[in-house]
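To assess whether the prediction recovers the assembly geometry, we first specified each molecular entity separately, as shown.
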Amino acid sequence: MPAKNPPVLAPLLKKLRTWWPLSDEDSEAVLALPHKLREYRPHEYIVREGDRTHQCCVMLSGYSYRHKMTGTGARQIFSIHMKGDAVDLENSLLREADHNVQTLTKVEAAMIPIADIEALAHERPHVGSAFWRATLIDGAIYREWTLNVGRRDARTRMAHMLCEFALRLEDVGLGESTDYELPMTQEQLADALGLTPVHVNRTLRALQAEGLIERTQRAVKIGGWDKLAEVGDFDPAYLHLKPDAMGMRV
Amino acid sequence: MPAKNPPVLAPLLKKLRTWWPLSDEDSEAVLALPHKLREYRPHEYIVREGDRTHQCCVMLSGYSYRHKMTGTGARQIFSIHMKGDAVDLENSLLREADHNVQTLTKVEAAMIPIADIEALAHERPHVGSAFWRATLIDGAIYREWTLNVGRRDARTRMAHMLCEFALRLEDVGLGESTDYELPMTQEQLADALGLTPVHVNRTLRALQAEGLIERTQRAVKIGGWDKLAEVGDFDPAYLHLKPDAMGMRV
DNA sequence: CGCCGGTTTGAGTCCATTCAAGAGGAGTGG
DNA sequence: CCACTCCTCTTGAATGGACTCAAACCGGCG
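The predicted structure of the complete assembly is given in tokenized form:
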């Protein structure tokens, strides 16, 4: 079922172009990647640890997250994914999946056979470079996440993460950097931060009491970006956002 | 100063071949990458946060580590690197370095201009794929590190890390998996594990009291691999080692 | 209306931290 | 060869940030 609608893979292309200038031909080749549309329900697994997947899931709408569990059942979330993210390259390019990817909300996705991505990367080296770079940026985000979990206290950790989400969501055009949707339960926040749900609750409410954030239902409003960034020890350099996007903030 | 000695970049080639079969021509092209030899002293910076590097440092001997500091001066180590690792691809391919790489011991390295690596990846797509995969594996190791720091207690964390080092060192042919050199101070171990040096000391000595490890000077001897792996909740899948290497253990 | 998943709050506990002091080892200089 | 210094390791005691246990509250939904 080859692509008919030109713009379906546009979010992927946008992401790839961030760090590598692609010619019109290269761009069209990306958009022409064969794919099938697929919809996931909330809380559905996209990839499960141990799976051998042969296609890559590019997100078009909704949110998902990457996680893994310890032998005792404790869970750690590594990252949140949104529009434009290719969510299981790491799993399908290596032997077998070493972690899980699960949806947070309903997700619309384009499934691309991994073989076609590889073939395209070989035919068009610039596309290959763009994918490679996207992978490197994911790595940078993982590292910051580790620093956050390993060396910051609960309050700082939480503020930092809220700042990261703000900028990433803004970057892909979802919400303002000071007011965005965040469909995570406190338990999921806890798993992302390496805390317990109870302590997340207290931390959140402390930030709220200070007027740094406002949390209604599943949305976050930031009252005073600069202050929150300071509390969260947040420097967006590691996100490697587009130069012009960088200028807008901090 | 182009390469004359054929085998200088052999460790890099070995690593690249682990996950992608390279033809003889591709292999020779990798070995023929222009490079300069360089030596670093212990504790010297290879890359500093904020640097813009234009060459890639491939380690030939010695150890180095990747780290970043919070605004309050707390440090988190993300990974340890050894023979064959290309240590600053992430930094030189993106705009500017978002973290530091520093030597642990004396290091011999081959410095390759990043432009030559990119050119080779473009000319020879299989080489590009091999580099890409190496990056993906680094990502997998970061994720496990995060899980370790975020969701395991000190004892488990330490055991897990010692297991990881054992297998990785064995894989590159440095020491046995049950007896290896580990030139890290307890303070560095603490920064890697997200603990304090004092608590690392207590944890180490507790493991030793149980007969699980023996630590003399800067070396580790593992007394009972299976037991340590169990204590450390260690499953080597995330390292994505070669299939045949995997069979040897666990 | 009553269930159910998620949130909120309190009280007590514990793992890891902080503070502090001493011991061991390697290197330097007199 | 011995002092002296610096760095790392070791151990004890007290503290504290985050956890556990537990109960109540809330809003959405069948």
